[in-house]
Amino acid sequence: MLKPIMLAGTGSDVGKSILATALCRIFLQDGYRPAPFKAQNMALNSYATPDGLEIGRAQAVQAEACGLNPHTDMNPLLLKPNSEHTTQVVLNGKPLGNRSAYDYFRREGREELRNAVNAAYDRLAANYSPIVMEGAGSISEINLRDTDLVNMPMARYAGAEVILVADIDRGGVFASCYGSIMLQTPEDRKRIKGIIINKFRGDIRLFEEGRKMMEEVCGVPVLGVVPMYKDIFIDEEDSVELTRKRQSLAEGKVNVAVILLRHISNFTDFSTLERDERVNLFYTSNVDDISKADIIILPGTKATLDDLQELRLGGVAQAIIRAHREGKTVIGICGGYQMLGQTVSDPDGIEGRIASLPGLGLLDIHTVMTAGKTTRQVTFTFDGKECEGYEIHQGVSSTEESILRQGNCIGTYIHGFLDNAPVIDSILRPYCTKTQDHAGETPKAFRERQYDLLAAHVRKYVDTNRIYQILSC
Fold it and tell me: 419 vs 64, 132, 388, CA distance in Å?
């Protein structure tokens, strides 16, 4: 048995999720029975568990790195923002409804949620060791200390040893580490047993002096300095990276434009397609880019009507319709599928203030938003071959078909649709005669290999022996 470990951050997007995934795989490789846990996750990337419930995508990835099926106990509380002021609250895999940020973060009612996440942790800890916990955002938001469910209060409850993760690439690493530690209460400060500096660029030997200075200033050992990597592919949780994937059109490849929606969700749907050597995939809301692409994809969204309205006001909807008329392939997934229909209606205000909008009119479906939510794993047949994916969506469309193909337009509620080789080969066939050999490695085998590569990368730069000593005391 090992103590639980929490990876807490100096801020958002410092790499907590990836490092937690690495530790999950390292502990599994070393003969332990680890499990991931994040009490509260705010993300639009989610996943359907085998029993048809919803958790954050990052914890599903971490579960796979542990060799486990994902379970809601690994992420009992999921927040899915609808706007800057409201969020959908998903507790133990089921939506409770929408809450304003003000109402959610008030002290009243927090103990009920705290009891729920603590109970989920207890169930996991009774069966697995070590529990690899992940904090959220920054651990030094002292104004939220009394209502915090996921960072130091959760570490105290679990008796976890905390490792502080800092992103050196964004600058200010000394101040962010020192401030994050010094702003803790004396009790919580003692719980922080090490620092991992993440996302280092350049010659790592140049930071040796900095490492010593960090330890002197913070009074905490630096357990590792982890360089950036390029050739390891792990599903991302945050959409921050998408703004950097706006490369220009490429000659000799099939150009795939994914529409960059304001509330884009489950963008991991395109990871497999993005890695295909025949493809140049980029994210855009530029009308000119859309006109030059071969394939246009409308992705999932947490706010279908709001994003649909924005597409119309910005001219993007008209650009997609023109591209379809010119023979380009248009694909819609989940909310994108709903947008491609004739109408999207929200008579009960499930999403917000917009009651109804005309869709792009490329598919013969009508969609009505409903309070109920569909979450399930699915198998389907495409070009005579069995494929798999999962559904997470609100709204009911006027067809029972899981995949609707009408001319050069395809719509589906299935996330992971484009992870399947028969689907990819089919949509690329009109634009590329070259085929890809898929016999060597299945998508699952590919992911398993990436977890091993990530574990090897982190083992090289992080003192795992020291981590074991910390967890064994």
Answer: 16, 28, 8
What is the C-alpha separation between 31 and 375, in angstroms, rounded? Answer: 33
Catalytic choice (71, 263, 393, 415): 415
pLDDT at 245 over 70: no
Cα–Cα dist 267/237, whole Å: 9
Q: Given the residues 218, 334, 387, 409, select the one marked as catalytic.
A: 334
Query: Which residues 6+ apart lie within 8 Å of 387 measured at CB?
Result: 379, 380, 381, 417, 420, 422, 423
Q: H or E element: which one contains 350?
A: none
Model confidence at 238, pLDDT cuts 50, 70, 90, reads: low
Q: Give dist(CA 77, CA 394) in Å, integer.
A: 18
What distance in Å separates the CA atoms of residue 358 and residue 301, rounded to the nearest whole number?
Answer: 17
Residue 393 designated active-site: no
How many whole angstroms separate alpha carbon 113 and alpha carbon 118? 9
**Could you give the 3-state DSSP secondary structure of residue 148?**
coil
| Residue 315 backbone dihedrals phi, psi, to 5 degrees | 85, 0
Is 415 among the catalytic positions?
yes
Count of C-beta atoms within a 10 Å radius of residue 433:
8
Token readout for 274 is: 């993005």
**Residue 226: count of CB within 10 angstroms of its CB:** 23
Q: Residue 239's pLDDT band (boundaries 50, 70, 90)? A: low
* DSSP bridge pairs for 284: 259
* 232 and 454 Cβ atoms separated by less than 8 Å: yes
Helix 304-313 to helix 316-325 angle (10° resolution) is 80
Read off the pTM: 0.91
What average pLDDT does the segment 334-352 reach?
Answer: 94
What DSSP line would sit under 254-279, residue for residue? EEEEEE--TTEE-GGGGHHHHH-TTE
Q: How far is CA 5 from each of CA 34, 122, 222, 358, 411, rounded to the nearest angstrom? A: 10, 14, 16, 50, 42
